[in-house]
Write a structure and sequence with these properties.
Shape: globular
Number of strands: 4
Structural class: alpha+beta
Helix content: 25-40%
Number of domains: 1
Radius of gyration: 14 Å
């Protein structure tokens, strides 16, 4: 992160990536991430709907030096009803990543 302006641009980019799924989404749930002991803050987007191309998107930052964005995409036509077990498993992995992240 170079400065506060670049951090704000990263936030806006992450929001725009999530919002691109609005036409197919039934809901976009935003879950704040606050892990002050690890200096990890961010937002996790859960993009609901059986035809969404990306179910999980998130970003993490220490607000000073680091910014990390992640998204789960599949290289198949979206049919999240049949992909739900994998989506759930990957959501658990993302949660573990968030809880265990340590900046270097």
């Amino acid at each position: 992160v170079k400065n506060i302006e670049s951090l704000n641009e990263y936030f806006e980019d992450a929001r725009n990536f999530a919002n691109k799924h609005i036409p197919k989404a039934t809901a976009i749930v935003e879950q704040p991430i606050v892990e002050p002991d690890q200096d990890v803050y961010g937002l996790w987007y859960t993009i609901e709907g059986s035809q969404t191309a990306s179910y999980h998107q998130f970003y993490l930052t220490d607000s000073v030096e680091h910014f990390l964005r992640g998204a789960l995409y599949f290289e198949v036509s979206p049919n999240n009803d049949s992909l739900q077990p994998v989506i759930d498993f990957m959501g658990e992995d993302i949660a573990r990543l968030i809880q265990s992240l340590q900046w270097k």
